[in-house]
Specification:
The complex is a heterodimer. Chain A is an alpha/beta fold. Chain A contains ten helices and eight strands. The chains are: A alpha/beta, B alpha/beta.
Chain lengths: ~290, ~575
C-alpha cells in the first residue's frame, strides 16, 4: 500500500449485464469502495467466483479475478490463499453456489477458519437460469420448479455459520450501501474466515423479496451490541422473519488455518524457490537414503 | 539346489503384520545384495480377512512376480488352503505347528511341510505372540541358509522407534525361529545367499517413488482426499512436508481437492492432487476448468478396478479412456503413464515442468500394482538434480516492463501465453471457465471462441512435438511378435519377451509411457513394421487398443485382456501366445 488508492483504480470498461435494479450493482460498488477504503490496490486482491449473475462481478471491475465453476469458489479461494496468504482473497457468489451445490465447502471453510472473505449475494432465487427456487428461498415460494410452492424450509446461513465455527459472521442489505461497504471492509480485515450474507433483491425473478420488503424488516444492530459475546450472537443469529438484524453479528479471534500450516511459517510458498534444496535447505539425497 | 531364485509368499489375516513382515524381509534381502520384487494383496478392511505379501527373489533386477510359490509362509490355516495349489513341486510350507489342518493336506503333493511353533517361540522368546511373524521370518532364513545378520539388522532399524527391548525380543524370536528349523533338520532345496556386491539400495514402492519425484520436481502444494490405492502418496508427502515446505491439505472432498489445487496453481504454486478413478470422476468438471483457465495442475490417478467402488484394493488399467477424454467439450491435457518404479519417479519429477510449460492439467496414470509393488533400486537411478522450468511464466523484470493491458490468454503460435502470477500491479487480470477473450473477459463471439479453442488445443500439439518421444522399445528392433502395453503390465510383458527370446523366438515390446497427446505417426509406423502385434492390458475393453485404432486407423485385434483385479504374470501372457505360429 505504498501508493494512494482511489475508487477509479477499480474502474473497468465492461458494463454489467445485470437487470436494472439488481442488488448486484450495489454489491459491486461496495466491494470496490471497501477495497479502496482499506487502501488495497487492485493487484492485492483476488476475487474468486462461481456461476451465477453475481459471480460475474470481477468482470466488471479492475481486479484479479478467477471466475470458476458452480459451487467451487470457496475451494478455489482456499487453495489460492494457502499458496499465497499475502493476497486478499474474496469470494463473491450467490446463495446456490454458497449454500446449495457448494454447501459442503461453506461448512468446512467456517470450521477451518481459512482467511478468505465469502460475500454471498443472497437473492434467494436462481436468477441466471431464470427463476427456480434456491436453498434460501422461503417455504411456499412459487417458481417454475415449485409450482405448488417450495416444500423445504430455507437454509439459515447465519446460525449455520455460527454452529459451524465461523469466526466472523455478518449480514448486509444491498439497500444500505454505506453499511454494506463498512461490513465488507471489516470482513476483509478480519483474520480468518468471514461470511457476509447479503440480502439482495432479484427484481426480475424474486420480486416478492424486494427492496421494500426488506426495508420493512431490517434493522441495524445497536452501537453497543458486542459481536464477541457468543451468547448474544446466538440470540441474534436466530432472529429472522419479522425483524432481521444487519451488521456484524459475530466476531471471534482464533488462529487462522494458514498460520498453523508449517510450510507457510517462512512465508507464501509462491514467493520461494521451487527447487526443494534451495527452498528449505533439505537434502533430497538424504531423503533417498532414508529408503535404504 | 535353487540358489537365489525363489518366490516366498507370506499369508495371514489383516492385522497380523503381513505387510511389515514382508517389507522387512525385502529390506533384509536387499541388504544382502539380492533383488526382491514384492507385491501386496490386501482387502478393504482393517482387521481379518486373508492378505498376502509375495516376494520373488533374484540375483538380478526383476520387474514382476511370476506364477508359482516356492515357499509358503502361512500365518493362518486359511493361508495353507488358499495357496497350497500354487506351490511348485519341491516347494515347501512353513506353518504354525498349532494349526488344525487335516493330516492328509500334503498327501500326494510334492510339497515339503515345515511345521514350526511360531506362537510358542514368539511367546517364550519375545513375550508376545504378535512376534509370530518374526519367528516365521527367522524360520525362512533357517530353511534357506540366509545369513540371519541381515534379518537382525533390519529388525534393529525398523523397531528402533519402539525401544531397545522390542528390538532385542524380536531379534531373539527371529534367531529362535531359525534355530528351531535347523534343529529339526528340515531339508529344503533352496538357498538365499549374500551377493558379492552389496551396494546400498533403496527399498521403495511406486507411490513413494512418484511422491519423491513430485517433490524433486518442485511440488509445493498437495490437496488430496484419501482414496486407495493413491493414499500413500499423500501420506509420504505429508510426512516430509515440514522439511520440504510443502503445503498439505486434506480437504472435505475430491471436489474440494482439485479446486483447491487449481486455486493454488493459479496463485503460482506447483500443485498436486492424488486420487483414484472414483475421485477423478468427481474432479472432471474442474479438469475442464483447469484446461479452460490454462491453470497448471498435476493429478496422480492411481487406478483400481471400477466401475463404482469396484475392487478397492486391487489393480486395473480401466481408467485410460476416462482420463484421456473426460470433460464436457474438448479440453487440453497431458497424460503420462509410468510403467516402473523408476518411471514413476521420473513422471513425478517431470509432470510439474510440463504443467507449467503448457499451462494445463497433467495426469499421471498409475495403478495399484505399480503403486504398492516394492523393489530394490539403486539411489543413482533417481536423479534428484532438477531444472525447474516454468515455461512462459513472466519474471519480475518482464512484469515491471509490461505496458498496456496484460493479455493472460494472448494468441500465440505455440498456443502458450505469457503467464503472470496474480499480485503484480502491471498484470491485474481475470480468467474464467466461460469462454473468454485474450484478456480473460467473457465472450460469446463465434470467431474469438473458435480461435480460443484452437489456441488451447494447439498447446497439445506443441507439447507432443517438443516433449513426447513415442513408445519405448524393449528387446530387438526386429521381431516376429511385438507386444504393446502400458503401465504396470511392463514387468510381466518384459519377462515374457525375455523368455520367448531365450527360447529362440523373436519377440519385442513397446510400452507407452506417454499416452496423450498421441504420437500417431510413430505408432502407425511401428504397427506397420511389426509382423504381429499383441496388446496386453489390464482392462475389459482394451482401452489403449481402442485409442490406437482411433488415432491411427490401424486395427489391433490381438488382445490379451484381464479384468479380475489381479496383475498379469509372464506365464499368463506366454500361455496366451503359446499356440501362435510366431512362437516355437
Amino acid at each position: 500500500m505504498t501508493e494512494e488508492v482511489s475508487l477509479s483504480d477499480y474502474q473497468y470498461p465492461t458494463e454489467p449485464t445485470w437487470c436494472p435494479g439488481c442488488g448486484d450493482f450495489a454489491i459491486l460498488r461496495s466491494v470496490k469502495a471497501s477495497m479502496t477504503d482499506m487502501g488495497l490496490a487492485p493487484h492485492e486482491s483476488l476475487i474468486v467466483t462461481g456461476i451465477g449473475c453475481g459471480s460475474k462481478l470481477p468482470h466488471y471491475m479492475n481486479v484479479n479475478g478467477f471466475h470458476s465453476i458452480h459451487g467451487r469458489p470457496v475451494a478455489v479461494a482456499t487453495g489460492a490463499k494457502l499458496a499465497n496468504p499475502d493476497m486478499n482473497v474474496v469470494v463473491t457468489a450467490g446463495d446456490g453456489d454458497s449454500y446449495g451445490i457448494g454447501g459442503n465447502h461453506f461448512l468446512h471453510a467456517c470450521r477451518r477458519n481459512i482467511g478468505i472473505t465469502q460475500i454471498v449475494e443472497d437473492n434467494r432465487v436462481y436468477g441466471l437460469t431464470k427463476g427456480q427456487y434456491s436453498p434460501t428461498s422461503h417455504k411456499g415460494f412459487v417458481t417454475k420448479t415449485s409450482p405448488e410452492g417450495a416444500i423445504e424450509p430455507p437454509v439459515r446461513p447465519v446460525p449455520t455459520a455460527l454452529t459451524s465455527g465461523a469466526t466472523f459472521i455478518a449480514r448486509a442489505f444491498s439497500g444500505q450501501v454505506k453499511q454494506m461497504t463498512e461490513i465488507f471492509a471489516r470482513a476483509m480485515a478480519h483474520e480468518g474466515y468471514a461470511l457476509v450474507d447479503v440480502l439482495q433483491p432479484c427484481v426480475t425473478f424474486n420480486p416478492g423479496r424486494s427492496y421494500d420488503f426488506y426495508t420493512d424488516l431490517v434493522y441495524d444492530l445497536d452501537e453497543d451490541y458486542d459481536p464477541t459475546d457468543r451468547e448474544a450472537a446466538e440470540e441474534k443469529a436466530k432472529e429472522w422473519g419479522d425483524s432481521i438484524p444487519l451488521g456484524v453479528i459475530y466476531e471471534e479471534d482464533r488462529p487462522t488455518y494458514e498460520e498453523q500450516v508449517p510450510a507457510l511459517s517462512e512465508g507464501p510458498v509462491v514467493k520461494r524457490s521451487l527447487d526443494p534444496e534451495e527452498r528449505s535447505g533439505v537434502d533430497l539425497e538424504e531423503i533417498k537414503r532414508s529408503f535404504i | 539346489m535353487k540358489k537365489n531364485d525363489m518366490t516366498v509368499l507370506i499369508g495371514g489375516d489383516a492385522g497380523q503384520g503381513i505387510q511389515s513382515t514382508g517389507k522387512g524381509f525385502i529390506q533384509s534381502l536387499t541388504k544382502a545384495g539380492l533383488f526382491p520384487f514384492g507385491r501386496q494383496d490386501y482387502r478393504s478392511r482393517i482387521r481379518g480377512g486373508h492378505n498376502f505379501f509375495e516376494i520373488r527373489i533374484s540375483e538380478k533386477q526383476i520387474y514382476t512376480h511370476t506364477d508359482g510359490v516356492d515357499l509358503l509362509v502361512a500365518l493362518t490355516e486359511e493361508s495353507v488352503e488358499k495357496h497350497l495349489d500354487e506351490i511348485v513341486p519341491g516347494g515347501g510350507v512353513l506353518y504354525n505347528e498349532d494349526f488344525d489342518i487335516d493330516s492328509d493336506t500334503f498327501e500326494g503333493r510334492d510339497v515339503k511341510a515345515f511345521p514350526v511353533p511360531f506362537t510358542t517361540i514368539a511367546t517364550d522368546e519375545g513375550g508376545a505372540k504378535v512376534m509370530a511373524n518374526t519367528a516365521a521370518i527367522g524360520a525362512v532364513a533357517g530353511l534357506t541358509e540366509f545369513d540371519a545378520s541381515y534379518i537382525n539388522s533390519i529388525i534393529k532399524k525398523n523397531f528402533a522407534v519402539k525401544g531397545d527391548s522390542v528390538v532385542e525380543n524380536n531379534v531373539k524370536v527371529a534367531e529362535a525361529g531359525k534355530e528351531y528349523v535347523e534343529s529339526k533338520g528340515y531339508e529344503f532345496d533352496y538357498e538365499l545367499s549374500e551377493q558379492p556386491e552389496t551396494p546400498d539400495r533403496m527399498v521403495i514402492d511406486g507411490n513413494q517413488a512418484f511422491a519423491l519425484g513430485a517433490v524433486t520436481g518442485g511440488c509445493n502444494f498437495i490437496s488430496a482426499y484419501p482414496m486407495t490405492p493413491s493414499t500413500s502418496i499423500l501420506e509420504w508427502i505429508t510426512k516430509h512436508s515440514a522439511e520440504l515446505d510443502v503445503v498439505i491439505k486434506q480437504p472435505e472432498s475430491e471436489l474440494a481437492a482439485i479446486n483447491m489445487a487449481i486455486g493454488a496453481g493459479h496463485a503460482g504454486a506447483r500443485s498436486l492432487v492424488t486420487t483414484s478413478g472414483g475421485g477423478f470422476s468427481l474432479m472432471v468438471e474442474a479438469l475442464g476448468l483447469a484446461g479452460m483457465t490454462e491453470t497448471p495442475v498435476v493429478i496422480a490417478e492411481v487406478q483400481r478396478p471400477g466401475p463404482s467402488t469396484g475392487l478397492p484394493t486391487r489393480t486395473s488399467q480401466g481408467d485410460m479412456s476416462s482420463v484421456v477424454f473426460a470433460s464436457q467439450g474438448d479440453s487440453p491435457r497431458l497424460v503420462l503413464a509410468p510403467a516402473t518404479i523408476e518411471e514413476a519417479f521420473e513422471a513425478g519429477k517431470r509432470a510439474f515442468n510440463l504443467a507449467e510449460r503448457y499451462q494445463m492439467p497433467v495426469i499421471v496414470l498409475s495403478d495399484q500394482h505399480l503403486a504398492d509393488s516394492i523393489r530394490a533400486v539403486h539411489p543413482d537411478e533417481f536423479d534428484t538434480t532438477v531444472e525447474i522450468d516454468r515455461g512462459e511464466l513472466m519474471s519480475e523484470e518482464e512484469l515491471e516492463g509490461l505496458e498496456g493491458n496484460y493479455l493472460r490468454h494472448e494468441f500465440t503460435e505455440s498456443g502458450i501465453s505469457p503467464r503472470a502470477i496474480p499480485g503484480n500491479k502491471n498484470a491485474v487480470y481475470k480468467t474464467t471457465g466461460n469462454e473468454h477473450d485474450e484478456r480473460g473477459d467473457i465472450t460469446e463471439d463465434p470467431e474469438l471462441r473458435t480461435r480460443m479453442m484452437d489456441k488451447r488445443m494447439r498447446k497439445e500439439d506443441t507439447a507432443l512435438e517438443a516433449e513426447f518421444d513415442g513408445p519405448v522399445l524393449y528387446g530387438p528392433d526386429e521381431a516376429d511378435l511385438t507386444f504393446i502395453g502400458w503401465g504396470s503390465t511392463y514387468g510381466a510383458i518384459r519377462e515374457a519377451v525375455d523368455r520367448l527370446n531365450e527360447n529362440g523366438n523373436r519377440a519385442n515390446f513397446y510400452h507407452f509411457d506417454e499416452i496423450w497427446p498421441f504420437k500417431a505417426g510413430e505408432v502407425k509406423n511401428l504397427l506397420e513394421s511389426s509382423r504381429r502385434t499383441v496388446l496386453v492390458e489390464n482392462n475389459f475393453s482394451g482401452q489403449l487398443a481402442s485409442l490406437i485404432t482411433r488415432e491411427t486407423g490401424a486395427e489391433t485385434p490381438d488382445r490379451i485382456l484381464k479384468y479380475d483385479g489381479r496383475p498379469f504374470t509372464p506365464e499368463t501372457i506366454l500361455g496366451e501366445v503359446s499356440d501362435s505360429e510366431e512362437v516355437e
